[in-house]
Specification:
The complex is a heterodimer. Chain A has helices at 9-17, 21-32, 41-47, 53-64, 77-86, 94-106, and strands at 3-7, 36-40, 70-73, 109-112, 127-129. By secondary structure, chain A is an alpha/beta fold. Chain A has one domain (3-129): 3-Layer(aba) Sandwich (Rossmann fold), CATH 3.40.50.1010. Chain A is globular and about 35 Å long. By secondary structure, chain B is mainly α. Chain B is 58% helix and 6% strand. Chain B has a two-stranded antiparallel sheet with strand order 1-2. In chain B, helix 1 (23-33) crosses helix 2. Chain B starts with a strand and ends in a 7-residue tail after the last helix. The model of chain B has no long low-confidence stretch (mean pLDDT 85). Classes of the chains: A alpha/beta, B mainly alpha. Chain A binds chain B through residues 1-5, 18, 21-22, 24-34, 36, 38, 58, 61-62, 65, 67-69, 71, 105-109, 125-126, 128, and chain B through 47, 50-51, 53-55, 57-58, 60-63, 66-70, 73-74, 76-78, 80-81, 84, 87-88, 93-98.
């Protein structure tokens, strides 16, 4: 199966906090399109310290469910080099850089709540700002 | 009519069944199946079940009640995703298997 959407750190935080229905709607449509939603490993590391108890419970579910249509995108050696090369062109942190690398790799949309964090690392047409 | 395979264990094994469908759909399915009609139908059912389970997980995650996806919101998301797919198809951006 292919990746149809990647979440950056800001989108992941909204998802784990259940703050916007728009991200649930996006995920639902990706699933119906028989694709997967990708969550970069570094985005998880980025948000972990900002999570409350209920958010951590949802994160644990996300990490353990293997049938939810949401998958963790691991940080491989090649990917680490790409993240290092991408960091200077993004205004967000490592999680954002990892998200940019994965969205480029899979040729899919990158969901974000903070488009300014992406800098000029991606074509604006490849971003979806969460409403 | 559906007949359980006698070798089947709980949740496993196979079922033999006969189905009825319009001729034009049956011809399409035969052509798509590459000669293995059962495998083709099985893959369609698997895909349907995978989607159904994933949608159930989304609700279990918390997207219910006032956070339940709306038809209007889903239509907006669908349009945005489809526009991007169309653009990448014509623009040649590659997709890799996960």
């Amino acid at each position: 199966m292919s990746i149809g959407l990647v979440l950056d750190s800001s989108a992941l935080l909204l998802h784990l906090r259940l703050e916007r229905v728009s991200i649930g709607e996006l995920i639902s449509e990706v699933i119906d399109g028989d694709q997967l939603v990708g969550v970069p490993a570094l985005a998880v590391v980025d948000v972990w310290s900002d999570l409350g108890n209920a958010d951590v419970t949802r994160l644990e579910r996300m990490l353990t469910w293997d049938d939810s249509g949401v998958v963790i995108l691991p940080l491989t050696g090649d990917c680490l080099l790409d993240v290092h090369g991408t960091l200077p062109s993004v205004k967000g942190g490592q999680g954002v850089a990892h998200a940019v690398v994965e969205a480029r790799r899979y040729g899919c949309l990158l969901a974000t709540d903070r488009p300014g964090d992406i800098g000029d690392a991606m074509d604006p047409d490849d971003l979806i700002e969460l409403s | 009519m559906t007949t359980p395979d006698e070798k089947a264990g709980p949740g496993g094994g196979t079922f033999r069944t006969s189905i009825t469908m319009p001729i034009n759909l049956a011809e399409y399915a035969q052509a798509r199946s590459g000669g293995n009609f059962s495998a083709y139908l099985t893959s369609l059912v698997e895909r349907d079940r995978r989607r159904e389970v994933a949608q159930q997980r989304l609700a279990e995650f918390g997207y219910v009640d006032d956070m339940a996806p709306t038809e209007e919101g889903r239509a907006r998301a669908r349009a945005r995703l489809e526009a991007h797919r169309s653009r990448t198809r014509t623009g040649g951006t590659g997709q890799r298997a996960a």
